[in-house]
Amino acid sequence: MDRLQSMRVFQEVVDEGGFAAAARKLDLTPAAVTRLVSDLERHLGVRLLQRTTRRLSLTPAGEAYLQRLRPILGDIEEADAIAHAHSREMSGTVRVLALPGIATHIIAPAIPEFQLRYPEVVLELHVHDVVDPDVEDYDLTVVTGGVPIHSSAVARTVVASEAVFCAAPAYLERFGEPASPQDLGAHRWLRVRTPGMRLRAMTLIDPTQRDRTLEVEVPAVVHSNHMDTLLRATIAGAGISSQPAGLIAPLLKSGELKRVLAPWVTGRMSIVVAVPTRKYMPARTRAFVDHLVESTQQALADLELARTAAGA
């Protein structure tokens, strides 16, 4: 017996005042409606309806049962409506603004799995090196934690990670791998430089020694204000650079890059996603934010697992 269908049929029989009228309303045969109500009565072990040739009435048990049944069926219909609305919302466009490095190494790898889950959602990506992003113009904005976000926006951390030293295997084969901070001066460095600012000594932090710090002068054979350019040059084997672990986790896992001089780091940073302040966020936008957080943190977890296995 389909108990839920029998409950709905029973309610319609009462509301329509008869089996034939309920059958027309539900697009069923009168015999099917009669059978479903009888099945429900048999399951409950009590008569719900008093049937005569002229009229149909509820028994005391039927009246008490229907009183409890109506809100239950109402809740089920509301749940169905919410689910259907959610399904409709899992289509349309999500407009995303992202910094170049984040778009390339965080968002792009997360897209295939998101498409499998939500094939009707279109991602419209705008990639810019923004200093002061206009969050209101997009469904979500993905930047580093150092980029100012307007107070009216709602920000969520995608991942918090450390900036680590990395180099391509080809570079390390050619120049060797630094074994201590004192070895860094003999290597070729790719460094970020803000226009109008001079390069300073690099601060190294040892998380295993209560964040002990060390200042090291390192030469820069390439410096740029564009992080992704430096990352691409690092992958190509031009030298060593400092990169956010959360950003390069897939590259470390694939072997395109290798972390050097662990456990030293050069700082801590985060990647955040900001959405305009709204009372209602479309389900497709919320789904992409959740997926971005999930896939990025999973990439870091996989990297840590691989590192642990390698050290075992």
From TrEMBL:
InterPro entries noted in UniProt: LysR-type_TF_proteobact-type (IPR058163), LysR_HTH_N (IPR000847), LysR_subst-bd (IPR005119), WH-like_DNA-bd_sf (IPR036388), WH_DNA-bd_sf (IPR036390)
Sequence ranges assigned to domain HTH lysR-type in this UniProt record: 1-59
Alphabetically ordered keywords of this record: DNA-binding, Transcription, Transcription regulation
Pfam families recorded: HTH_1, LysR_substrate
SUPFAM superfamilies in UniProt: Periplasmic binding protein-like II, Winged helix' DNA-binding domain
GO MF annotation: an example: DNA-binding transcription factor activity
Family: Belongs to the LysR transcriptional regulatory family.
Protein name stated in the entry: LysR family transcriptional regulator
Organism encoding this protein: Ramlibacter monticola
Lineage per the UniProt record: Bacteria, Pseudomonadati, Pseudomonadota, Betaproteobacteria, Burkholderiales
